[in-house]
Amino acid sequence: MTERRRALFAWELVRYKVDIAALSETLFSEQGQLEEVGAGYIFFWSGRPIAERRDAGLAFAIRNDIVVRLTCLPQGINGRLMSLCLPLREDQFATIISAYAPPMTSSDAVKDEF
């Protein structure tokens, strides 16, 4: 996702008053985070290692005021799985999983690895 595309996407999140969005096919490499300052969102992503082909990739876009209340930041498991633990009340949490399964056109080896 280019810088311009990410900024446009963040402003669409603002427009529709989205708190948290799970994104797929981001094509980002590795893991990281980036703040879209004007829009008030932080993107957390997980993708394939730089040396590998850039496909798949996931991200969470989360409003800044929600991020500050998180007890832990979103975790990338690999380029196809991410988790986010949201505090609800006292000792209650909701875990959100974002998964991007390989398309049916992928090889059996890729699907089996998932």
Structural overview:
With 114 residues, this protein is α+β, with helices and mostly antiparallel strands. It has a single domain (3-113), classed as Endonuclease/exonuclease/phosphatase (Deoxyribonuclease I, Chain A). Helix content is 20%, strand content 36%. The strands form 2 sheets. Strands 1-4-3-2 form a 4-stranded antiparallel β-sheet. The longest helix is centred in the N-terminal third of the chain and has 13 residues, at 3-15.
Identify the CATH homologous superfamily: Endonuclease/exonuclease/phosphatase
Residue-averaged pLDDT: 89
Judging by the overall fold, what is the CATH architecture? 4-Layer Sandwich
Order of helices and strands: HEEEEHEEEH
Q: What's the helix count?
A: 3
Strand order of the largest sheet: 1-4-3-2
- Percent helix among the residues? 10-25%
How much β-strand is present in the residues?
35-45%
Structural class, from helix and strand content?
Answer: alpha+beta
Major beta sheet summary: 4 strands, antiparallel
**CATH topology-level name:** Deoxyribonuclease I, Chain A
Number of domains: 1
The gross shape turns out to be: globular
CATH class: Alpha Beta
Topology of this structure?
Layout: H1 3-15, E1 20-24, E2 31-36, E3 41-46, E4 58-63, H2 64-67, E5 75-78, E6 81-87, E7 93-99, H3 108-113
Antiparallel strand pairs: 1-4, 2-3, 3-4, 5-6, 6-7
Key descriptive features of the protein:
114 residues, alpha+beta, Deoxyribonuclease I, Chain A, 4-stranded antiparallel β-sheet, 3-stranded antiparallel β-sheet, 3 helices, 7 strands, globular, Endo/exonu/phosph_ase_sf
